[in-house]
TrEMBL record:
NCBIfam families assigned: MJ0570_dom
Gene3D superfamilies per record: HUPs, putative n-type atp pyrophosphatase, domain 2, RutC-like
Protein EC: 6.3.1.14
Domain of life: Eukaryota
Family: Belongs to the Diphthine--ammonia ligase family.
Example GO BP: protein histidyl modification to diphthamide
Domain Diphthamide synthase: 1-225
Species classification: Eukaryota, Viridiplantae, Streptophyta, Embryophyta, Tracheophyta
Keywords attached to this entry: ATP-binding, Ligase, Nucleotide-binding
Protein name in the entry: Diphthine--ammonia ligase
Keyword Signal: no
Catalytic activities: diphthine-[translation elongation factor 2] + NH4(+) + ATP = diphthamide-[translation elongation factor 2] + AMP + diphosphate + H(+)
GO MF: ATP binding; diphthine-ammonia ligase activity
InterPro entries: Diphthami_syn_dom (IPR002761), DPH6/MJ0570 (IPR030662), Rossmann-like_a/b/a_fold (IPR014729), RutC-like_sf (IPR035959), YjgF/YER057c/UK114 (IPR006175)
Length: 714
């Protein structure tokens, strides 16, 4: 990509440019924001470093690049971490600056910044990039600061301190010192006081005088004065270096100062523009078209935390097209949410099932018309997307499940849109993870190499290893780990996987988790996955927000004896996994294999053969599944109102239509309610039937029916 680099003069923004080049990007321009008054060294800003700004104009000559500068007219008006466009805010100066860069250099499509740990800065850069249609590159984000410091010095960044403001940093001794000379002292202060060695806590700021990107010249400061703020402080005095004179020393003898690169002063008031949700849809596309021609089916579970699913029942096994079907489904969900007094802001998680992964980009165009950052002001939902044989089963081109919370203000959303070395970015209205009342719902993770956003090479197990690393990086942001606190781990596998590759995936997972407290594993065989991936993982993690409640899970020891659930009925123990966390959170996976189905249907005289499409036998199985759900909830002290998710996965090889499956399972739950007056169901089903290529607790994924249950009192 062609990149404009935001430069403050500090080591971080310069090293971020070097990282951009490492990953094959091209720096085509520089952009810098400076105070209104040249005599002012530092602004009271959480957003911008301005100390040493008098020298930044020389970067254009040192690098031989265009430099765009703008004076900061705004101030800090919007102080929340999630930035909303606010006239008069200092962020709007960045918008005006980058808007002009894009106007003059239309080929620019990305912005580099040196953010390491500040969500405040990162999210503001991402907000501006989103509004301008640019990609944010933040290759230093969440990197280990000691490693970064050492690498900056090793790779030739020559930077001096232009501000010190931390205990152990004395302005008279440490101001104007080179970074390499301060390294050991900074490491000692880190050990003693816990300071950030890269200055991310405001401990110090630097000015880069030379680096490998300065091909043409380097900077020498000839004279400066130190300005002390609060010199009598008993904790830490603040010192700022004010350059009085400096000069450049040419590196390239053939470089002529008569052809200096231009410096553009960007003036005028910024034009306020909201983020564009997506490219305009095809003019022939009508999101309401066809809504009257199909029969929608909506499911709903729970009271406090509920799941709403919607799909199209179309027994003719045709589709109006993925875009129109998906838009119609999303519109129905939107209406259903509205009827309950909810909106997209209440949605924590979205399962997006589509009929053709080759049309993923078209599906996203529809998606972003409904789910936007403006609609979801507490944070956009997390999401997983897979391809399923929907049209073949008579379910249209799009099938959507949403997890809905009644108190959206209590959710915590991690949405990193910047491309970085940390974890794959989510460029758009879907987030890496959402935490709500003690549970972390993580987006589906592919085996993507974060800085390149390409699938890693090496096959399914290599992809799985990378996906686990990506998931762990996300989990750490919530002070938890997928390896100790996951209670349900879903693995979507591509139908392209061979039998041996499936077994390799299973063995890789087994070796990654401690067998004594490994989570319940659910394998789902999908027609295809995003980017043609082999695997996609989706951990569900117990992550209480109150520190004293945190404890390692022992999922294996929480499994309930099967006789407590099924009475005298004999069923293989490997077919059932249950996790009950403090009687507040309940997860259960039940596999109905061919062997278990034969036992369940053993009282029937007819031959057991689902390949013939036996409605009679499926009715028996559905009744059994309904009983399992009821007894699991009852035995663990949960009610139907606590039910959050109830899915039944079934393979398309059963040769049973979606209409028939829906009818059979609906009747099974109605029979359950008729037998027990304490059970009250609404008009809508409380389960979702999901057609797959295969599913199960084992990587063979050869279940007849797999049940996934989640209930919560949190």
């Amino acid at each position: 990509m062609k990149v404009v680099a935001l430069v403050s003069g500090g080591k971080d923004s310069c090293f971020a440019m070097m990282r951009c080049i490492d990953y094959g990007h091209q720096i085509v321009a520089l952009a810098n924001l400076i105070p209104l008054d040249d005599s002012v060294d530092e602004l009271d800003s959480y957003m911008y470093q301005t100390a040493g700004h008098q020298i930044i104009v020389s970067y254009a000559e040192c690098m031989g690049l265009l430099l765009f500068r703008r004076r900061i007219h705004g101030s800090t008006r919007e102080q929340s971490v999630n930035y909303r466009m606010t006239p008069g805010d200092e962020v709007e100066d960045m918008y005006a600056l980058l808007h002009e860069v894009k106007r003059q250099i239309p080929s620019v499509n990305a912005v580099s910044s040196g953010a390491i740990a500040s969500d405040y800065q990162r999210m503001r850069v991402e907000s501006v990039c989103s509004r301008l249609g640019l990609v944010s590159l933040a290759f230093l984000w969440k990197q280990d600061q000691i490693t970064l410091l050492e690498e900056m010095i090793r790779r030739g960044i020559v930077a001096v301190t232009v501000k010190v403001a931390a205990i152990g940093l004395n302005p008279s001794e440490h101001l104007g010192r080179e970074l390499k000379d301060l390294k050991l002292h900074l490491l000692k202060l880190n050990e003693k006081y816990g300071i950030h060695v890269c200055g991310e806590g405001g401990e110090y700021e630097t000015l880069t005088l030379d680096c490998p990107l300065f091909h043409k010249a380097r900077i020498f400061i000839d004279k400066y004065k130190g300005i002390l703020d609060n010199p009598n402080s008993t904790i830490a005095s603040v010192g700022v270096l004010h350059p009085l004179s400096f000069h450049l020393e040419q590196k390239d003898a053939s470089y002529s100062t008569s052809h200096l690169p231009a410096v553009f002063e960007v003036e005028g008031n910024p034009t306020f523009t909201q983020a564009s949700s997506s490219k305009p849809l095809d003019s022939e596309f009508d999101p309401d078209k066809g809504e009257q021609a199909v029969n929608f089916r909506i499911s709903s579970t729970g009271k406090n935390l509920l799941s709403v699913g919607c799909w199209i029942q179309n027994s003719s096994k045709t589709s109006n097209g993925l875009q129109e079907d998906l838009a119609a489904v999303l519109r129905q969900i939107e209406l259903r949410l509205g009827a309950e007094g909810f909106g997209w802001v209440n949605v924590l998680y979205i399962h997006l099932y589509i009929s053709d992964m080759k049309q993923f980009a078209l599906a996203n165009e529809v998606y972003v018309k409904y789910i936007t950052s403006a609609e979801c002001h507490f944070g956009v939902p997390s999401r997983s997307t897979i391809e399923l044989p929907l049209v073949k089963c008579g379910l249209g081109g799009g099938y959507v499940e949403v997890l809905v919370a009644r108190e959206p203000e209590k959710k915590k959303v991690l949405h990193v849109q910047s491309i970085s070395c940390w974890a794959p970015s989510c460029i758009g209205p879907y987030s890496q993870a959402t935490q709500y009342k003690g549970v972390l719902y993580m987006a589906g993770q592919l085996g993507l190499d974060p800085p390149t956003m390409n699938l890693c090479v090496g096959g399914p197990t290599a992809e799985l290893e990378q996906a686990l690393q990506n998931s762990e990086a996300v989990a750490k942001c919530f002070n938890t780990s997928i390896f100790t606190s996951t209670f349900l781990f879903v693995i979507y596998c591509s139908a392209r996987l061979t039998s041996s590759e499936k077994m390799q995936v299973r063995e890789k997972l087994k070796s990654s988790f401690d067998s004594s407290d490994s989570p319940a594993f659910l394998y789902v065989l999908a027609s295809d996955l995003p980017k043609g991936a082999s695997v996609e993982v989706k951990p569900v993690i117990y992550a209480p927000e109150v520190e004293e409640e945190t404890e390692e899970l022992e999922v294996g020891k929480l499994r309930m004896p099967l006789e407590n659930i099924f009475g005298k009925l004999q069923i293989d123990k490997t077919c059932y996994q249950l996790c009950n966390i403090k009687d507040k959170l309940l997860s259960c996976i039940v596999s109905i294999t061919n062997t278990e189905a034969s036992k369940i249907c053993s009282q029937d005289d007819s031959a057991f053969d689902f390949q013939c499409g036996s409605k009679k036998h499926m009715t028996i199985i559905a009744t059994f599944c309904a009983s399992i759900v009821a007894k699991t909830l009852c035995e663990n002290g949960f009610s139907w109102n606590d039910l959050v998710i109830l899915r039944f996965y079934y393979p398309t090889s059963l040769l049973l239509s979606a209409d028939l499956m829906d009818c059979v399972f609906s009747e099974a739950f109605l029979d359950l309610a008729r037998d027990d007056e304490s059970i009250k169901f609404g008009k809508e089903p409380l389960f979702n039937l999901v057609p797959v290529i295969g599913s199960g607790q084992s990587a063979h994924m050869d279940d007849l029916i797999t049940c996934e249950l989640l209930a919560s009192k949190l």
